[in-house]
Queue: 3 jobs
Job 1
Amino acid sequence: MPRPNYKWWVLYIVMIGTLMGALDSSIVNVSIPRIMADFGSSIDDIEWVVTGYMLSFSVLIPLTAWFRDRIGHKALYIASLLVFTLGSILCGFAWNLPSLIVARVIQAFGGGAITPTGMAMIAEVFPRHERGKAMGYWGMGVIIGPAIGPTLGGYLTHTFGWRSIFLVNLPIGIIGMLLAARVLMPDKPHASTRKPFDLAGFVFLSTFLVSFLLGLSKGEHEGWTSTYLITCMIIALVGLVGFFVVETQVEDPIVDLSLFESSVFSICTMVSVVRSVALFGGVFLLPLFLQQQMGFDEIRSGLILLPGALVVAFFMPIAGKISDRTGPRLLTIAGLVAVAYFMYMYRNMDINMSVWDVIKPTLVRGFGMGLLMAPVMATALNAVPTRKAGAASSLLNLLQQVGGSLGIAILATVLSHRAHFHLNVLGSSLERSSPAFRDSFKRVFQYALNLGSAHGDARKIAGALVAKAMAQSAVVSAFQDAFIVGAGIVAIALLPSLLLPNKATGHTELDLSKME
C-alpha cells in the first residue's frame, strides 16, 4: 500500500527532473560565444550544439510510452535521469566540438523522456479531480527552469567557465535518482499491452521530425526557397505520409492515434500547439530585442524576464485548483486573451523604452500562461483512460515541441521580411530631395563639425549615422510587426478553446456530446 502522501512525493521527485531538463533548455544558449571561442568554431558548426539536442530530444519522445509498457515508469524515469546526468558530465568534459555535440545528443536521449514520463506518473497517482492542481505545481518547474536559465548560465559561465553549466546538473541528477530509487514504488510493466516495437512507424516518424525540424531551424539561414529547405520538406513529407500509412496498418503503432478519437483531447492538443507556436516565438523575440537592439547583456536580460516567469509559477497551482472545480474553458480563454494582449502590448516597442515598459507586458503573459497551462494539460490527460496517460503525455509533448519550433521559424521569418520592407520604405528618406533626410543630415553634420571634424569627414559621418539610425528603425518596426503576428496566432487558439468543458470532469471520461 502506498503511504498517504505518496502522490505528493511522486510530484516532488518529478519536479526535480523536470526542473533539470527545463533548465538545460535555456542555460546553454548564453554560453555559445564562449564555446565558439574555446573550440575555434564557426556559427554554422556551433549551432549543432543546440540543433543536435533539439532533434534527438524530439525523436526520443515518441518512444517513452513504449518503454513504459516494457519496463515501467520507475525504471524509465531513473534511467532517463541517469542518461541525462551522464550526458551532462560528458558535455562538461568535452575536448572538442564533435565530442560536445555527441554528448548533447546523449543528454537529449535522457531529457526527451523526463517530461512525458513525469506527466504520466502524475496522471497515474493523482485522481482526475486533483490533476489540475498537481499539474499546476509540476508546471512551476517547467516555467522556472527556462526563466532562470539565461541568468544562471551567464553567471556560471562568467565565474566558472562554460563547462560549469553542464556539470551543475550532476548534484541535481544524483539527488533525483536517489529519491526516485528510494521513494517510488515499483510498478510493473503493462503486461496486457506489451506490444512489439513498431520499427517502421518509428523510422518514418523520425524521418519526418528530423527533416521538418532541421528545415525549420535552418530555413531562415539557408533561405526558404533554397534547395536545402525544399529537400528537407520533401523528405519530411515522405516521412509523414509513410508514418500515417504504417500506423493505419500495424496492430501496435508507435503513436496511438486513437487518442484523437477523444474530442476534448484533440481540442487540448490544438490549443497547446498554437500556444507553443506563439510562446516559443515570443520567448525567441524578446531576448533578441533586449540584447541586439537595447544593448543588454544576457544576465540583465534574464533578470528582466524573471518576474514574468515568477508570476506564471504563482498562478499555475491556483489555476489548477480552480480548474478541478470549474473546468478549463473560462481559464483557458482568459489565459489566451492575456497572452495575446501581452504580445500586442509590444506593438509600439522601441529602443528607448524603460525597463518597466519591458517588464510590464511579461507580467501579463505570466498571468495568462499561469491560467492556461495546468488546466489544458490536466484536461488532456483526463480525456483519455489512465492506462493511456503515457501515450497521451508523449504525444502532447511531441506536438508542443514541433509547435514551438514552428513558432520560432514563423516569427523569425516575419522579423526578417518586415525588416527589409521597412528598410525599403525608410530608404526613400535617404534621397537628397527628402525633407526628412535633409533635416536629419543637417543636425548630425553640424554636430560632427562641432566636434572638430573636417567638412568632408563631417558629411560622411552624417550620412553614415543617419543611414544606421534608419536601419535600426526598420528593425525595431519589424519586431513590432512580429509581435502583432504572434498575438494573431494566439487569438486563433480561442476558437477551439470555446469547445472545452465548462464544468469539472471528476472521474468520468470527457466527451463533447455530454456538454450540450
Note: Residues 506-516 have pLDDT under 50 and may be disordered.
Job 2
Amino acid sequence: MITARSEERLVKPLPVEQHRLQMIRARSKFFFHGGQKFFVRGVTYGPFPPEGGIQLPSGEKRARDLQMIREGGFNLVRIYHVPPPDFLDDCAREELRVLVTIPWEQHVCFLDSKEIRAKIRESVRDSVGKNIGHPALLGYTVGNEVPSGIVRWYGAERMEQFIESLVDAAKQVDGLSMMTYANYPSTEYLLPANVDFFCFNVYLHRQDELERYLARLQNLVGDKPLILGEFGLDTQRHGQEEQARMLKWHVESVNRMGLAGTIFFSWTDEWYTGGHLVEDWKFGLVDANRKPKKAYRELQSLFSIPLKLHLTKLPKVSVVVATYNGARTLEACLQSLVDLDYPDLEVIVIDDGSTDHTPEIVNDYPMIRYIKQPNKGLSVARNVGIAAASGEIVAFTDSDCIADKDWLNYLVRTFESGNYAAVGGPNISPPAHDRIQACVAAAPGSPSHVLLTDTDAEHIPGCNMAFYKWALATIDGFDPVFRKAGDDVDVCWRLLQGGFRIGFSPSAVVWHHRRFTIRAYYGQQKGYGEAEALLRFKHLLYFGATGAAKWKGEVYGVPRFSRWLARPIVYHGIFGMGLFQCVYPRRESDFVHIVSSVEWIFVTMAFVLLAWKVHELWAVAALMAICTLGVAISYGFQAKIETRFSSLRSRVLTSFLALTQPLLRGWARYSTRMKEKRTPHRVIYSKVGLAEQVDWYRPATLAFWSDQGMGREQLLKMLREFLEQEGWRFSVDTGWDNWDLLVYGTRWSQVRLLSVTEEHGDGKRLTRVHIVPELSVLSKIFTAIAAVITLWTLIRVGYDSMFYVTAVIFFLLMLLYSSFSRRNRIAQIVKVAARRCGMLLLAPIARKS
C-alpha cells in the first residue's frame, strides 16, 4: 500500500547519486535489481557509542567506513536502530543498501498488555515513516530474535500473528520497502506469512552442518527469498586465519544452496551494547581502528568477480518441451530457455499435434530443434524427446513455464551432490494477471513436490524435472497410458521402486503459469483425477481407500489450516532451552481427505434423502455438510493469495474452489476407473476355447500338469498375451499385491487370479490357479447402502416394505450371478492359455484354506 505520505516522499527530488539505485524486488527465491539478480553481500554495522543521540559514527569516520565496505565488495549494511536520513544518503553515495532492524521490547512478556502491543505497533509505524521510499533502503526487519522462552510462553501461532501485525503496520506506512523478521534456529518454527523475504541469524561453523541446515530452511520458507542475517567468527578465540577460511567457504555454501545472500557479523570489533563496549570478543572484519583483517582481504578478492555456481563437471543437458496448443505462453518459455546460463545444452520442442500457431513461434528460434507428431499424448511426446536427446541429462519443462536463468546450474549441482538418478525443483506461480488467476493459483491441487527428506524427493513435478538418460532407459521411459498427467508421478515411483534416489533443489526454479480461467482449472483437476485412477491400478500401495494418492513424504505448499487439524510437532529442547528448536510437520490430516471426498458427499446426500422420511437424520446430514464446508472455508481464508488480489471476494471464491476441486477430481477418478478399467461387453460375452464350465457356486481352483518344466511363469506370460489379444482389461502384480492378475469385468465386478507351482522332480511340475470373483468398490458401496436402507425399512415400515426388500435381494443375486459368470469366463481363458503352453488339465481340485 502506497500512502499519500510515501508518494510525497517519492516525488521529492533526490541527489544525483541516488538515481543509480533502483528498487530491489523479491521474486520467488531471489532478489532482482532491474532485470538482474541481486545477491546480498552484507555486513552488520554497529551499534556504536552514542554520538549526538544516535549510535552511529559521524563525519569522516563514517565516510571512511562506508567507503571501505564498498571497496570490500559489499553491497549492504545491516543496522540495529532507525537511522537518520543523512546516513541513508551517505550509503546511497557509496551505492550501498541498508537493512534496518527496528528495536522494541522483545525480551519481556509484551503480549500480556494491550497498551504495550499498541505501543510497539506505533513504534514500528513511526520508525518506517522516518525514511519512506528512500532508494538506499532494502527494507526493515520488524523484530530480531524474540527469545525462545517468550515464544514458547505465548505459543508459536500467537507470536506469528503478532509479527504479521507488525509487518502489516509497516506496509501501511511504506508500501515500497520490503519487510521481514530476523529469526534464528531457536525459533525456526516462526514463519510469518506476509513477509517479503525470510531472514535467519545462523552461526554454524562446520560446512556440512551449515549446508544441511540451509537445505532445511529453504524448504521451510517455501517460494520466498532466504538470506542469513548474521554469520561470523570470533578472532579473539579462533584467530584471523580460521575466520578468513570459514567466511570464504560460507559464501560458497550460501551460493551453492541457492540463498539470496548473507550478512556477516560484523564490520568492526568496536561493538557497543547494554550501555558499554564489548571487549571480550572480536567478530569484526576490521579491528576497532579499522585495520583490515585477513577475512576482509579474502572476501574482497572473492567479491571482485561475479559469484557463480562452481560445478566440477558440465554434462550436456537436453531440455525437452512437450506442447499441445500452448502457443499462448510458448514464446516466453522458449525465450527463457534460450537465455539459460549453462554452456552445453540443447532445446527440443515436441509438438504433439497442435492446431494453433505453435510452428510459427518455434520458427523464430532456429537454434531449437522442432519435432511435430500426431497427437499421441504427453508421455509419448516426452519419449520422443528422450529418443532425440543427445545430452547425458534430459530435463523437462512445460510450454506454460518460464525457467530461471540458473535453473540448470542448480539441477546439475544437485546431481553432483549425491547419488541421484533424477533431480527436480519447485514450480512457482508468477504474478497473477487478475483476481481469477490469483485464486486459481491459491486453490488446492496444483502440482507440487513431495519430499522424503530435506534433499530427497518422492515426487518432482513434471514441469521441473531432470533425469540421467540411462535412468530413463532403465525403466523404459514414460508410460504411454498417461496422456495428460500422472506420467511424472509414475516415473518417480518406478525409479524409487528400482532403488534409485531422486534429489530436490529448492533454488532450481521455474515459474509455472496457473490456469487462466476456472474452466481451465477444472479441466486440469479432471485430468489429474483421471491420472490418479490410472496410477492406482499400477501403484496400489500409494493409494488410500478413496483412490486419492497417499504420499509417504511431506507435501509442500499445503495451506496452514492444517494446524488445527494436524498441528506440527515442535522440539523445543528440555525446558525450552534447545539451541535448535525444530518443527516437524505432520502428515496432512486424514479427516480433511475424508470430509472433502466425493464419497463423503454421496453419503451426505443419501442421509439427506433418507431424512425426508426419517427426520432424525437431518442432524446427521447437517453435521456432515458443515464438516465439508468448514474445511473448504478454512482453506480459502488461510490460502496464500497475492496481496493485491486478497479480498473477501477472493477468499470466498478460493473457498468455493476448495469445496469443488476434490469432488471433481474424485468423480474423474471413479468415471475413469469405470471406463478405462472395464472390459467391453463384446469381449466378456464372446465364446472362446473349451466349453467346459466351472461350478458357479464355489471358487475355482484349476490344476495343470507339465512334464516339460512348464510352470506359473510361462502360464502367466501366455495368459497375459491371450487377455491382451482378446481385449480384456487387467492389472499385473507390481510386487505389493496378493494376486498375480486382476481382470476387470464390468463396473460391478472383477476377477482375481493367484497361482503357485509345485516341484515334483525331473522337470515335472504341477501348477494351481485360484480364480476368485470380487465385487468392485462401487458394488460394495451400493451393497452397503442397500443393506442399511433395507434394515431401516424393515424396522420402520415392517412387512409392507417387502416389495422393496425383494427388489434389493434380486439386485444382489443378479450381482452375484454376474460375478460368478465372469469368473467362469476367465477360467475358460486360463484353460486355453494352459493348453497353448502344453500343460495338461487335471480334475478339478478344491482349494483348501
Note: The first strand starts at residue 24 and ends at 27.
Job 3
Amino acid sequence: MKNDTKTNSLSGTAILYRLPDGTIAGTKNINDKQSFDIIANTNYFLKITATGMQEINQEIAVKDININIDLTWRTKTTDLGSVVVVSRKQMIKQEDDKTIIDAEPLANSSSNAYEVLEKTPGAVVDQDGNVYLNSTNPAVVQINGREVKLSAADLASLLKSLPANSIVKIEILRTPSAKFDAASSGGIVNIVLKKGVKLGTSGSVNAGYFQGRKNTKFAGFNLNRSVNKINTSLSYNYTNRNNFEELESNRIKNNDTLFAQRSYTLYPGANHFINFGIDAELNKKWTIGYDMRFSNNKSRSNAENNVDIISLMNQSTAGQNQSFINNRSRSGFISNDIYAKLKFDSIGSNWETEVSFDFFRNKNAQSYLNEFLLPAKPDLAGNGDISSRKNIITLTSDLVWKLPKKYTVETGGKFNSSNSNNQSFYYVNDGSGNKLDSFQSNRFRYKEEIGSLYLQASKTFAGFTVKPGLRMEYTNIAGTQVFPSDTSLSINRTDFFPYLYLRRDLFKMMGFMLTGNLVYRKSISRPYYEALNPYPKFIDQYFFEIGNPRLKPQFTTTYEFNIQADDFPVVSIGINDMKDIFTGVTYTDNSTNIVYRTFDNLGTNKETYVRVTGGIPPGGKYVFYAGAQYNHSNYAGLYAGRPLAYKRGTWTFFTYHNFKPSPFWNFTLNGFMRLKGLQNFYEIDPVGQLNFSINRSLLKKKMNVVLSINDMFYTNKYTFKIDQPTTTASGQRFNDTRRVGFTVRYNFGIRPKEEKTNEPFTMPTEGGVRN
C-alpha cells in the first residue's frame, strides 16, 4: 500500500467482500502490506477507508489463489458525490462442474418460469415437460436446490404458475459431484428463485397477455422487505391459460390394417401461486429462515378423438368410431422449508441444514363416450373418479470445511421419505346400466425411503485441482396394489457411487486462458411412482398408459472431458455407459388392438456426445452465444421379447443473441433446433423454436414493456415415427406454441433511512449498483 502523504503512521480498515452475495470474506487493519485468504475462480470487492483519505474501492477477479495488488492512498480533497458503477453480468459462466445461466434476459421475454426454462441455452424441453442436457435421460429439475418429486406434467404445471421475473438464475450440472443425489444420470437443472434482498422495501408488479389460437393472461406482484437483520419476501401470481393439442397418428397392424387417428384436445385452466419467505441473521455466524410455496390449480380438458380403420388390401374402410373424453381436475401443492446456516470463518467454512415438508393433492373426474359408427354397435359410456396424495419429508445437512494448506472437505447426508396413495373407481355403461370397471379401478400405495451419506475433498497443487468423492445411498421402496388384485413390489438395496474431478489450466489462446476438466461419475435412475404404478390411465378407445411394477434400477457410468475459456464452456466430449436401461416403450395387445405405453428394462445403451459452444462475451452492445451438441445412442437388448440392436444419432443446436443499442432498448433472439431426435424410440423429425423480444425501459428504468413472439415460425411441431417389434406408427403432434404477447413490469424500491447517506460509494452487488 503506497501513501502519497508520506505519513508512515497512517492506518486504515480493509474489508473484503465476496461477490455476488456480498458476504464479508475478511476485515483487517492495514498501514502497509496485508494479506487475505481467498478462493480461486471467485470475484471479490475490496473497500479500504482511513480518516482524511479518499476511500479505495476495488473489484478483484481471482483466477488463481495467489494475487498481488498495489493500491495508493490519496488525501481527500473533495466529496465525490454520487458514483455510478455499471458492470454487465456474464450470461453463461462456469464454476467447476456447474454452468450458471443469468435468467434476467430470458425472463424479459417470458410469461412464466416454464418458458424461461424452455429458452435456457443448452437445455431442450420436450412437449411433455422433460428437460434434456447431455443425455437421452431426462434431467432432474430442482427449485432452490431441492428436487420437486412430481411427474413431468405436474412439474410443468407448477413452473407455468411461477412468474418469470421470480427467477434469478438457472444452474446446470451435467455431471453433479458426490454432494448431489446419485439419481441424476441425466444431470440436474436447479431453478434459483429470488429471495429478499437488503434494499429496504422493494418489489414489482407485472401483467401480461399472450395470444396464439388461444390466449394466456397473468398478473402478479412480489415484495421484499428488510428491517434490521430480518428479510421477508412475498409474491403472488395468477395465471389463466388455454392451450390445445392436435394429434394425428397412423398405426399399422399385421401389415394389412391401418388405424388412422385424429384427435383434438383443449386445456383451459387457472392457477394461483403464492411464495413467502423470511430469514433472520441472528449474528455474524448464524442465519435461519423459512420458505413456503403454495400452488392451487383448477383445470379441464375436453378431447375429441376419431378413428378410421382401413384395410390396406383393398383400401376400404372397415370401421369408424369416435370418442369424447372430459376431465375436471383440481390440484394443490404446498412446500415448506426450514433452514439454518452456520458460518465458521470468512473463507467459506459453513454448515447448512434444511428440513422440508411437501404435500401434493389431486382430484380428477373423468367421463367418456365411445360411439361405434361402422359397424354400428351400442355406445359405450363410462366415468371415474381419481384421487392421489403424496407427502414428502426431506432432511439435508451439508458441511464445508476449509482446512490449512488449501484443503477443502465437504461431507453431509440426506434422508427422504415419500408416501403416495392413488385410488380410482370407474363405472361403465354399455346400455344395461352402470357397473364397476375392474380394469381401470385401482388402489395403489407406495412408500419410498432414500438415505445417503457423502464425503469429498478438493486440493489445488502444481496447477491441478483434484476433487475425489464417494456417495452411499440406501434405497427402500415398497408398493402394494390392494385392488382389484394384490400386486406387491419392493426394492431394498445399498449402492456406492464414486466421483472424480480434475482441473488444470492448459495455455492461453487469443487472450483467453483455456482450462481442461475431466469428470468420472456413477449414477442411478430409480423407477419412480408413476412408472411403477400398475393403474391403467385411459387416453382414448385405442390407447392407455400403465406402469410396470417389475422395473429394475438403471445404472450409468459417465466419462467427460471439457475445455473452458476464462470459465466459459467451449468443448465437451463424453460417454454415458448405461446398464439395465428402463425407458418408455409402446406395445400392442394383439387380442384387442389396443396400444399401451409403459416402461420396461431393455438392456444397455452406450451414448457418446460432443458439445461445442462459442460467442461474443458481454461488454459491448451486442452479445451472442451459440452451440451444437451431437448424441449417438447404441442400444442392445430385448424389445417386446425380440432382439434389439438400434443406433441413432441426434444433433441439437441452440443460440442466444442480445443487442442493446441504448440504455432504454433491448432486443433478444434465442432458440434451438433438434435434428433426428429420439424420444422413447420415437424418431422425431427436425423440431425447434425461435423466439424474439423487444424490451423498452420507461420511467427512469422502473418500468419495462416487452413485446414477445414465441415460436416465430411455428416449428415446435413433433413429426414422429416408430418401427419396433409389435408397433409401427407415424404421425404428428403440436400445441399452441406460436404466440405474440405483451408483458409490463413496474419495479419500485424504498431504501432504508440509514442507507441514505452521502458516502461516495457502497459495496456493489453482482451486475452493478447505482447510488
Note: The first strand starts at residue 2 and ends at 3.
